Amino acid sequence: xxxxxxxxxxxxxxxxxxxxxxxxxxxxxxxxxxxxxxxxxxxxxxxxxxxxxxxxxxxxxxxxxxxxxxxxxxxxxxxxxxxxxxxxxxxxxxxxxxxxxxxxxxxxxxxx
Length: 112
Fold this sequence. Notes:
Layout: H1 15-35, E1 43-47, H2 50-59, E2 65-67, E3 78-84, H3 93-103, E4 104-111
Helix pairs in contact: 1-2
């Protein structure tokens, strides 16, 4: 019996998972830079992949990040909104922006 890996075999990771992380990195990095986010700010993420992007933010130390689906009652409690609106129509963006006006503070930053 042999223990360990066979010669020439490499550990195989989840290709889709690493691809999604790479895509998340491409989106999150510029959004954080544009918004000038700090880890102390309350951040709401909206869009198709809001949950995935929220988890990516939390992984990076933005513990107060929430997705639009789990952000609570609208009370102007968020300092930053990051909106991932790829592959969606501009017409469908208007209702999302209307909703965001209720959860963002008066001095909030919005990045679409």
